[in-house]
Amino acid sequence: MSATFTVLAEPSRRAILSLLAASECSVGDLEQQLRLPQPSVSKHLRILREAGFVQARVQAQRRLYRIRPEPFMEVDAWLAPFRRFWAPHLDALERHLDRVESQSRRRRKQR
Amino acid sequence: MSATFTVLAEPSRRAILSLLAASECSVGDLEQQLRLPQPSVSKHLRILREAGFVQARVQAQRRLYRIRPEPFMEVDAWLAPFRRFWAPHLDALERHLDRVESQSRRRRKQR
DNA sequence: CATGTATATACCTGTAGAAGTATATTAAGG
DNA sequence: CCTTAATATACTTCTACAGGTATATACATG
Hints:
Two copies of one chain form a homodimer. Chain A has a three-stranded antiparallel sheet. In chain A, strand 2 and strand 3 form a beta hairpin. The first copy, chain A, is of the alpha+beta class. Chain A is 70% helix and 13% strand. At the A-B interface, helix 1, helix 2 and helix 5 of A face helix 1, helix 2 and helix 5 of B. Chain B binds a DNA duplex through helix 4.
């Protein structure tokens, strides 16, 4: 878990993940789009790979990188206990909508 | 966003947040429960406070700390674009279970 | 097999930040 | 007021890690 957050603390790495969320990319693609030196991209990818965020497949001299879901799921699960600090607001909204909804349904029946 | 993740990368800070998720605590409470030196707790609380994760109210010599939702919501929002990488899997799992379910129902009918 | 292309790694340097210790601040209570 | 309790801050040291530069590895193609 510490490793997961440490990895995400780096802006270039989050940028890489953002691009990969849109589509599979080679190192060169990322290098171009992010305007980062190639060794930097490779080093970040290594860290992302070792933390399970991405996975590479080899295609000739290229390595095509793509997202792996596990660490994201971990973060999502970690957030769970804290959701009650803002979800209640949403719940209230949902209850409100349900109420409005069921009222309009009742009104329809009465017609 | 970088600050947010940097703050969460520290295990003691996540431990503090965990305790605060359960209930409002004083510095001393946290010190006891986590077995950390008091200056360490205070320093982590400062960092958490400055990043908006917690908020203190003064009660005599005590400071009672509690969770603030904003940075957690930020993390939750950041996760959004990546949810499609595992939500589909859950969907697939559900479809699978549905299929198994309806198959066993069909088999029961055939008997 | 020589050359170019794509990616990875090694090494060095600078810096942010965590732990530990000592000390300052603020309020309570006799 | 003086003392104790609760918390914050200052200062030092150590370490992890990011950036930069140079170099190695691996594959493709003439």
